[in-house]
Design a protein that fits this description.
Layout (H helix, E strand, L loop, with lengths): L2 H15 L3 H12 L9 E7 L3 H15 L4 E9 L9 E6 L6 H14 L7 E7 L2 H4 L9 H14 L3 H9 L8 H8 L3 E7 L22 H10 L9 H11 L17 E7 L1 H14 L3 E6 L4 E2 H17 L6 E7 L1 E2 L12 H12 L6 E7 L11 E4 L1 H10 L3 H6 L3 H6 L4 E2 L10 E7 L2
Parallel strand pairs: 1-2, 1-4, 2-3, 4-5, 5-6, 7-9, 8-10
Antiparallel strand pairs: 9-14, 11-12, 11-14, 12-13
Helix pairs in contact: 1-11, 2-3, 7-9, 9-10, 12-13
Length: 440
């Protein structure tokens, strides 16, 4: 393993470690429930997301040692393959990014349990990225199949996650603050712990904000469908009709800030992409690199972002500096796949191949891009990486990046070079991670 490969992979590991639920969940629970103030009455734990099962495991371990008199129960939904052991909290694995019946059944059970809370009870919600698809409980008149078709259409449109969620919130009985609304009506206290995978880290955007006030409206949802030309051919009539009824005021809006006046509802963002970028920066500094964090809110088409960051790499290599540089960034790119093309891979590997192609004239560049949940798009890898040695191997094999970019088969390109990042499910999720090493 070359020095650059080691640094790339260790930087990614540092980014993951600071978002480990086993570390951060007990830390925040200790702040929310200081010693001597453990939850009284019924303590219901619910949640959804790729990290939520591991969050539930961490909560149970904390409760065993710090809450000797508390009775813990609940249901948490996670993506298939992202399970984690628990004793009292039921873990249900379900479909993501396209919802399935298992997710809907689990969401129904969560809704039922929250509806049984009484005054003095505590609801702890464990929320992470991926929860929008997993917590699928449609409003009356919308079927799971209609939700699935809508999600698939939004995914193919290239709409960013925030816009996708604005639509899904207004079709859901749980998201858009509706879970908190139900608990408030029962007189319960709500404490939501959130691991953010969205730019800006707004509780309203993380898993579509089941316990947070929502800034979007039914009109916003309709405008988003129009923006991406999603018509009756791709959006079920039941969905369009519900949104139109919402605009007309015939069905209630999502939870708003005014609804939370005097309500015992708190949302705690316990892990973010920026904290992970800072951890990676701290690590590369020990390896002699000067880190530059470009931000955790970088979005756009993956191929375009790759070209933009290649331009940055060229600029920085022309600067007079003694130290090698590490450009570190986060955020969530999108990939728009034309009809007739299947594609293999995801936004991280697509970004990386675009960057690879646009830096073909730079001999001393290495880079890695990976999704912190361990799964990048359609395959089982988290992302991909390359060093000067990988570039030489690609040239020797006659691999032409443009051909793979045209077919959106970035997985196929890096698989042939044995340059995939393969972690398996990491049981956390703080968005995408990108690092570029510029050696003088």
């Amino acid at each position: 393993m070359s020095q650059q490969e080691t640094i790339l992979k260790n930087a990614f590991a540092a980014a993951l470690a600071v978002a480990d639920p086993n570390k951060i969940v007990p830390e925040y629970l200790g702040k929310i429930f200081p010693q001597g103030f453990e939850p009284k009455g019924r303590c219901l734990v619910v949640g959804a997301g790729k990290a939520s099962a591991s969050m539930a495991s961490a909560l149970e371990l904390h409760a065993q040692s710090c809450w000797p008199n508390a009775t813990i129960e609940g249901v948490v939904l996670t993506r298939y393959g992202h399970n984690s052991p628990t004793s009292h909290i039921q873990i249900i694995e379900a479909g993501h990014p396209v919802p399935d019946q298992a997710g809907m059944d689990g969401a129904k059970e969560i809704y039922r349990l929250v509806g049984e809370l009484q005054a003095g009870d505590v609801l702890i919600a464990l929320i992470s990225g991926g929860g929008s698809s997993l917590l699928t409980l449609p409003q009356a008149g919308i079927s799971i199949e209609d939700m699935r078709k809508t999600t698939e259409a939004l995914l193919r449109s290239g709409a960013p996650i925030e816009e996708m969620n604005a639509v899904r919130k207004h079709l859901s009985a749980i998201q858009g603050g509706n879970l908190a609304r139900l608990a408030i009506a029962r007189g319960a206290r709500v404490e939501a712990l959130l691991i953010s995978d969205v730019t800006g880290d707004s509780p309203a955007d993380i898993a579509s904000g089941p316990c947070a006030s929502d800034y979007s409206t039914y009109q916003d949802a309709l405008d988003i469908l129009a923006k991406y030309h999603l018509s009756s051919k791709s959006i079920p009539e039941s969905v369009s009709s519900h949104l139109q009824r919402g605009v007309a005021g015939e069905v209630p809006e999502t939870l708003k800030e005014a609804d939370l006046q005097n309500a015992a509802v708190s949302n705690h963002v316990i892990a973010t992409a920026y904290k992970s970028l800072e951890a990676a920066a701290d690590y590369v500094r020990t390896q002699g690199y000067e880190p530059m964090i470009l931000g955790d809110t970088i979005t756009g088409e993956a191929q375009t972002v790759g070209i933009e960051q290649a331009s940055l790499a060229h600029q920085h290599l022309m600067m007079k500096t003694d130290k090698p540089i590490a450009l570190i960034s986060g955020g969530e790119c999108t990939v728009t796949i034309p009809n007739g093309i299947k594609g293999r891979g995801g936004r991280c590997s697509e970004y990386l191949l675009s960057f690879f192609a646009a830096t073909s004239d730079l001999a001393n560049v290495s880079a890695l891009a990976a999704d912190t949940d361990g799964i990048d798009g359609s395959e089982k890898n988290a992302g991909a990486w390359f060093t000067p040695e990988i570039r030489q191997a690609a040239n020797k094999q006659g691999l032409i990046p443009a051909q793979y970019l045209d077919q959106h088969d970035c997985y196929g390109f890096f698989a042939q070079l044995d340059a995939l990042v393969e972690t398996g499910p990491t049981l956390t999720n703080v968005n995408d991670f990108r690092i570029i090493l510029l050696d003088k």
